[in-house]
């Protein structure tokens, strides 16, 4: 892998710092002739806030995807791609579900998603990572404040902020079942965190993240004029969020799960290099080695019937 300057250093045993983002948020523009593309207003909202919520956008996909994920839970039992909650054997996350499901693979290339992704990134994209977050009732534990890009940069070698996460709500996401909390506008700043990354840190962090978590003083600065927004909606709601958006979620204290299917799209012009931690790359299910540009799939039927 080619060497490249580290313009976003983090976990280098230095003092935690907050600095401006050095890259655009939206690389593309309005594309009126491209179906399922974003309007100027939607692009402006994403650029300003760092996330975009499309309420009840794909409700017809919820039932078939939930059935497929139920199958995967059984078929993938014992696989390394499955992670449990930090204090129980409850399933927390299924990584790389697209590799085990034709439906999920094709859904990741649905033009209603992929055309918007290409528009935001201003290029073709590949699927860097995918997961199902279960957040089981009563036992689903929190995710602390963090920027995904900070981890992907340090541990996977993503050089620049040119990636977008897209996720579909598979259950209603309410104020009570551990919804995603975001800090609108926080993606315009980068937090260089304290600490040093140990080998195979992911084995711990995917259950309970400790590194790449900003200190309270830094969070106070980020929150000072922005506040916290909760991302809630009905099953079938589609969400786009920038790779550097500061986000987290509380425990699920309700009697229903808060489950989502998530895809991370990286620009083909932003392929990972040697991890900036200096450690070996993380496993294939965290940083997909297949970096071929995705092609849209016009129909998911009969797979979704």
Please give a structural write-up.
Its cofactor is Fe(2+). It comes from Salinivibrio costicola (Vibrio costicola). GO terms for molecular function: dioxygenase activity. With 305 residues, the chain is an alpha+beta fold. The protein is 20% helix and 20% strand. It is globular and about 55 Å long. The mean pLDDT is 94.
Give the topology.
Elements: E1 17-20, H1 40-49, E2 51-54, H2 62-75, E3 82-84, E4 91-95, H3 102-107, H4 111-121, E5 125-133, E6 143-146, H5 148-156, E7 163-169, E8 180-182, E9 189-192, H6 202-205, H7 216-223, E10 229-231, E11 238-242, E12 247-249, E13 260-267
Antiparallel strand pairs: 1-9, 2-11, 3-4, 4-5, 5-13, 6-12, 7-11, 7-13, 8-10, 8-12
């Amino acid at each position: 892998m080619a060497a490249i300057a580290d313009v976003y250093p983090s976990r280098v045993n230095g003092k935690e710092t907050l600095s401006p983002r050095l890259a655009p948020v939206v690389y593309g523009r309005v594309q009126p002739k491209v179906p399922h593309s974003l309007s100027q207003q939607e692009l402006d909202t994403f650029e300003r806030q760092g996330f975009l919520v499309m309420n009840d956008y794909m409700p017809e996909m919820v039932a078939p995807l939930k059935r497929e994920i139920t199958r995967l839970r059984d078929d993938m039992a014992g696989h390394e791609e499955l992670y449990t909650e930090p204090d129980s054997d409850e399933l927390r996350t299924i990584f790389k579900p697209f590799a085990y499901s034709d439906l999920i693979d094709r859904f990741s290339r649905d033009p209603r998603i992929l055309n918007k992704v290409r528009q935001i990134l201003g290029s073709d994209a590949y699927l860097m990572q995918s997961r199902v977050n279960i957040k089981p009732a009563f036992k689903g534990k929190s995710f602390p404040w963090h920027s995904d890009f900070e981890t992907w940069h340090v541990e996977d070698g993503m050089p620049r902020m040119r990636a977008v996460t897209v996720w579909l709500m598979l259950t209603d996401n309410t104020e009570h079942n551990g919804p995603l909390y975001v800090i609108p506008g926080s993606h315009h700043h980068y937090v260089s965190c304290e600490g040093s990354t140990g080998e195979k840190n992911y084995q711990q962090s995917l259950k309970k993240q400790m590194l790449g978590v900003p200190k309270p003083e830094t969070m106070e600065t980020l929150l000072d004029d922005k506040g916290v927004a909760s991302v809630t909606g009905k099953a079938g709601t589609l969400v786009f969020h920038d790779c550097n958006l500061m986000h987290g979620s509380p425990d699920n204290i309700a009697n229903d799960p808060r489950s989502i299917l998530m895809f991370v799209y990286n620009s083909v012009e932003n392929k990972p290099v040697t991890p900036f931690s200096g450690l070996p790359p993380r496993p294939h299910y965290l940083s997909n080695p297949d970096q071929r540009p995705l092609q849209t799939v016009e129909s998911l039927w009969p797979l979704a019937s």
